[in-house]
Design goal:
alpha/beta, Rossmann fold, 178 residues, single chain, 6 helices
C-alpha cells in the first residue's frame, strides 16, 4: 500500500470538510474540532466536557461530537451531534482539523488522518512550540475544562497560520508513521 503525500492528505481533508460543512451547515473556513465519544463517560467527565463545549462558543470554532450514549448530557446549541457509527466516524476523521483526545482514543489514528491532537501529555505527543515551529499536538498540564480550553485556544490561534498548521500536521503524520 502506497503512502499518500502530505499535500494529497491536506487536499482530501479540505474537500471532506467542505462536503461535511455543506451537509451540516457550518463554516468550513473555521477550525473543526472533533470529539469521538465511543465509550461511556463518568458524570465528572461529562461535566468537564460540557463546560468545555460551552466555552467553544466564544472562540469561533466548529464542534462535532460523535456519540450515542452521552448526547443528552451535551445539548449545547452550537455543537453538532452525529450518531456514532462507522460511516460518521470515517467522515469526521476525514474532515476534522483537530480532536480532543480522551483516554480511550487512538492518537496515532487521528494523526495519520491529519488531525491535530489536543490532549494531556502522552507518549508520542510533543506540545507545539511556535518559537521553534516544532510539535505535533497541543497538550495541557491541568486536566480540567480550563486546562483543555487553554490548549484549544492555542490550537485555534495557530490554525490561522496555514504554514504553521501544515508543519504541525506534517510532524503528526511523520510521528504516527514511525
Amino acid at each position: 500500500m502506497q503512502e499518500i503525500t502530505l499535500d494529497t492528505l491536506l487536499d482530501r481533508k479540505k474537500e471532506a470538510k467542505k462536503d461535511l460543512s455543506q451537509k451540516l451547515s457550518f463554516s468550513y473556513k473555521r477550525p473543526l474540532l472533533g470529539i469521538f465519544l465511543d465509550k461511556e463517560m463518568s458524570k465528572e467527565e461529562e461535566g468537564k466536557i460540557k463546560n468545555l463545549l460551552e466555552g467553544t462558543a466564544a472562540i469561533n470554532m466548529e464542534v462535532i461530537v460523535l456519540a450515542d450514549s452521552n448526547v443528552d448530557a451535551f445539548s449545547i446549541p452550537h455543537v453538532i451531534f452525529l450518531p456514532y457509527g462507522r460511516a460518521n466516524r470515517k467522515t469526521l476523521l476525514e474532515a476534522a482539523d483537530m480532536a480532543l483526545i480522551l483516554p480511550f482514543n487512538d492518537v496515532e489514528e487521528f494523526m495519520l488522518n491529519g488531525i491535530i491532537p489536543v490532549s494531556e501529555k502522552k507518549d508520542g505527543l510533543t506540545d507545539y512550540n511556535p518559537n521553534f515551529e516544532t510539535g505535533n499536538s497541543f497538550t495541557y498540564k491541568e486536566n480540567s475544562s480550563w486546562g483543555i480550553f487553554a490548549a484549544l485556544v492555542r490550537a485555534m490561534e495557530t490554525f490561522k497560520f496555514p504554514f504553521d498548521w501544515r508543519n504541525i500536521v506534517s510532524e503528526g503524520v511523520r510521528s504516527a508513521r514511525s
